[in-house]
């Protein structure tokens, strides 16, 4: 969350002249409502089931595209194994806790997982989530350090990795 997946994914897709998909946008379009509303009315378990379903539908397509997932996607329902098996490459955009706090603070209200976290508790919350998710993230084919880098530079690094 907050690492720049959507921004960087769009840049890469444009550079490689392929389509870009954001799994969260697919979910919102298919469910006809926003992700915060899904969390509020149906809960996280429902959301994760739908996320898994749509991820599998997307990656089974025989097409060239860049896919941005939610930060929790790799951690549930064997999703990371599915992505590693089906995708040409899985990239983890690694950002330090301080950088994530700085990026997420202005948009807390639009992020269901952190909306109700006190500002002073946000660094600990993010650190805990990164610790819990680290084993999944570290399975990625490529890990790109994104601290203090502009999105265009990160995109160029990833394109070079993809060869």
UniProtKB/TrEMBL annotation:
Secretion signal, residue range per the UniProt entry: none
Its EC number(s): 2.7.1.71
Pfam family, one: SKI
Magnesium among keywords: yes
Location relative to the cell: Cytoplasm
Catalytic activity, as annotated: shikimate + ATP = 3-phosphoshikimate + ADP + H(+)
Source taxon at top rank: Bacteria
Binding site for ATP: 2-7, 111
Alphabetical list of Gene3D superfamilies matching this protein: P-loop containing nucleotide triphosphate hydrolases (3.40.50.300)
Residues where substrate binds: 24, 48, 71, 133
Cofactor binding note: Binds 1 Mg(2+) ion per subunit.
Cofactor: Mg(2+)
Similarity comment: Belongs to the shikimate kinase family.
Primary role: Catalyzes the specific phosphorylation of the 3-hydroxyl group of shikimic acid using ATP as a cosubstrate.
Name listed for the protein in its UniProt record: Shikimate kinase
């Amino acid at each position: 969350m907050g690492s720049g997946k959507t921004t960087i994914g769009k840049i890469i897709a444009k550079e490689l002249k392929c389509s870009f998909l954001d799994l969260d946008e697919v979910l919102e379009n298919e469910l006809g409502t926003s992700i915060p509303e899904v969390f509020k009315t149906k809960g996280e378990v429902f959301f994760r089931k739908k996320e898994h379903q749509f991820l599998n539908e997307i990656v089974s397509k025989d097409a060239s595209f860049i896919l941005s997932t939610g930060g929790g996607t790799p951690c549930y329902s064997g999703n990371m194994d599915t992505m590693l098996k089906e995708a040409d490459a899985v990239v983890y955009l690694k950002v330090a806790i301080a950088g994530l706090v700085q990026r997420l603070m202005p948009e807390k209200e639009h992020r269901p997982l952190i909306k109700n976290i006190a500002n002073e508790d946000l660094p600990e919350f993010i650190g805990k989530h990164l610790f819990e998710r680290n084993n999944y993230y570290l399975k990625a084919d490529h890990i790109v350090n994104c601290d203090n880098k502009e999105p265009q530079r990160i995109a160029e690094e990833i394109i070079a990795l993809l060869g």
